[in-house]
Write a structure and sequence with these properties.
The chain is of the alpha+beta class. It has 3 domains: 69 residues, Elongation Factor Tu (Ef-tu), domain 3 (Beta Barrel); 147 residues, Threonyl-tRNA Synthetase, Chain A, domain 2 (2-Layer Sandwich); 104 residues, Diaminopimelate Epimerase, Chain A, domain 1 (Roll), CATH 3.10.310.30. The chain contains 9 helices and 18 strands. Strands 1-2-5-4-3-6 form a 6-stranded antiparallel beta barrel. A hairpin with a 4-residue loop joins strand 7 and strand 8. The N and C termini lie far apart (88 Å). The structure holds zinc ion. The site of zinc ion has 6 residues, from helix 1.
Length: 366
């Protein structure tokens, strides 16, 4: 693996301070790669007894206070570094593959703790780019780190022109992946593409109107993703009593059946509402399904009635010859929660038996 910083160092704590409940230290030397530098996530590890929480080029955030002037061992998390190197080298290969196959140039790159994104400036086939990338990974191509002066760099055809900052630095670091790609970069990379393991594009989407962003995973991230998706698919297949290959067709069939059942329920509810409405008398109290209730309250509004429906405490009321103020005041006196414009109201009452008695009394009062 090619890391630009050592894995461990004996460091001196130069400064130690607290800000908004967080602890920070300034150390020398500084072996931790900063978060976000060159689009890459930063190092984690330990400084003496403290764990590193975040890193910038000046300070390191740690989980406890450290004594100024003390000399301690600082260690980076090497497994994390390897995983970062896998994502970063995969990005070089993906970008080169998209450019070689479709002339799509990389205009942005961002690595996060969960995935990495690459923005490309023209259309391409995700599958073709992914396949060529994995061909390069499986061919176990040598990845070289070459340090040169800006003059010496001119004999290489770089995928991306050098920045002004890089030219001024006087020392250019090239990452050369066999004859497939060469590009200037300051991040972490593997020594052979086989160390990446696998590269998987998990999503693509148009961004900023003209670019396509791909989300990808490499190495252990990709394997973890495959494992969790497999568990999800197999569990779901079991629920549908199907093989994973038939799962999509099975889910579509279920959705179609569910839609057909919903429309049948609607028709039956409408029909039932007509039968119930026909024989309704003033002051009647029913218990019905909610689907039926909405049909009745829409078509029958000339006599007072109450219908209880699910969830259990809900009650639809029709009070045609009574003012809204009077109905609301009465409902509130019974601890009813809800309201309505009249003549239809919807309330929930805690005690249905108590409500029934009160409703009979109320409707006979007028
Ligand atoms: Zn790189």
């Amino acid at each position: 693996m090619h890391f630009t910083k050592p894995n461990f160092a004996t460091v001196k704590i130069l400064k130690s301070f607290e800000k908004a409940g967080k602890h920070f230290v300034e150390i020398s030397p500084h072996p931790f790669y900063p978060d976000g530098s060159g689009g890459q996530i930063g190092d984690r590890g330990t400084i003496g007894s403290a764990n590193v929480l975040s890193v910038n080029s000046e300070f390191v955030e740690v989980d406890r206070a450290l004594d100024v002037g003390s000399v301690v061992e600082a260690k980076t998390n090497s497994e994390r570094r390897k995983e970062i190197a896998r994502q970063h080298t995969a990005q070089h290969i993906l970008s080169a593959a998209a450019e070689k196959l479709f002339g799509a140039k990389t205009v942005g790159f961002h690595m996060s703790e969960e995935f990495t994104t690459v923005d490309l400036d023209s259309d391409f086939s995700v599958e073709d780019v992914e396949n060529l990338t994995n061909e390069i990974v499986m061919s176990n191509v040598n990845v070289e780190e070459i340090i040169l002066s800006p003059q010496e760099v001119q004999k290489y055809r770089l995928r991306k022109p050098l920045s002004k900052k890089a030219l001024e630095s006087g020392r250019i670091r090239l990452i050369k992946i066999g004859d497939f790609d060469v590009n200037a970069c300051g991040g972490f990379h593997v020594s052979h593409t086989g160390e990446i393991g696998i590269v998987k594009i998990i999503h693509d989407e148009k961004v900023k109107g003209k670019f396509t962003r791909i989300w990808f995973l490499a190495g252990k991230r990709a394997i973890k993703d495959y494992q969790s998706k497999e568990v999800m698919i197999l569990k779901t297949s079991k629920l549908f009593d199907s093989s994973w290959k038939d799962l999509k067709a099975r889910v579509e069939k279920c959705l179609d059946e569910s839609k057909a059942k919903s429309s049948k329920i609607k028709k039956i509810s409408e029909l039932l509402s007509k039968y119930v409405s026909k024989d309704m008398k003033p002051g009647d109290i029913f218990e019905l399904d909610e689907n039926v209730v909405s049909y009745i309250t829409r078509s029958k509004q000339d006599i007072p009635y109450a219908i209880k429906y699910s969830p259990p405490a809900n009650i639809a009321l029709c009070m045609p010859e009574m003012s809204k103020e009077r109905v609301l005041k009465w409902a509130r006196s019974l601890n009813g929660k809800g309201g309505g414009k009249g003549p239809i109201y919807r309330f929930s009452f805690e005690d249905f038996e108590k409500f029934k008695d009160a409703f009979k009394k109320f409707t006979s009062e007028k």
